[in-house]
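Inverse folding, one chain.
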């Protein structure tokens, strides 16, 4: 389940912090809205304080860890960025849920909402680290409060959330444009 391949999304600017401390921030920059779902563009940064080089190197390894659905014996819920969504009707979906990755035919839709985190990359320097990623949500959210939740214990981020307007995102889907008429694809 992914964004439509031949579609230009509508962009809904967000520019809000999900979490902000003196040393760590997680923000949603924008939402790319497609005809079938949304991509939330995330960015995060960690600033170095008084960590010794060894501790900073350990934080770097955690900071650039792969997505939570990757099986790794050294991975724990505290050491990865956990992301989730609560829809207006109370339904929840999480980036750490493996249910959506169960084997299915490629032409079969998932049973419930998809909230799929995909890291895009990052970098680290002597005094800070930054990274970004996206979360694909399918289907489009219904009208009402859409609560995005994040937690990253090893980065000092407790469970934090922001509320977005599901109707605004759903309505923005009308602005998504096909690259070509469907009969030419």
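Residues assigned per position:
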């Amino acid at each position: 389940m992914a964004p439509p391949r031949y579609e230009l999304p509508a962009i809904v600017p967000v520019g809000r912090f999900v979490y902000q401390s003196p040393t760590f921030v997680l923000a949603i920059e924008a939402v790319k809205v497609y005809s079938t779902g949304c991509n939330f563009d995330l960015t995060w940064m960690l600033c170095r304080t008084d960590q010794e080089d060894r501790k900073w190197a350990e934080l770097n390894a955690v900071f650039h860890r792969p997505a939570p659905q990757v099986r790794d014996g050294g991975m724990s819920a505290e050491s990865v960025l956990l992301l989730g969504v609560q829809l207006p009707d109370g339904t929840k979906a999480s980036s750490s849920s493996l249910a959506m990755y169960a084997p299915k035919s490629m032409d079969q839709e998932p049973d419930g909402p998809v909230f799929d985190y995909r890291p895009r990359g990052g970098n680290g320097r002597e005094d800070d680290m930054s990274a970004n990623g996206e979360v694909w949500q399918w289907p489009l959210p219904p009208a009402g409060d859409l609560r995005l939740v994040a937690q990253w214990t090893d980065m000092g981020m407790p469970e934090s959330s922001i509320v977005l307007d599901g109707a605004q995102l759903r309505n923005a889907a009308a602005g998504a444009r096909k690259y070509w008429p469907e009969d030419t694809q």
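The two ends are 19 Å apart (CA to CA). The chain is about 10% helix and 45% strand.
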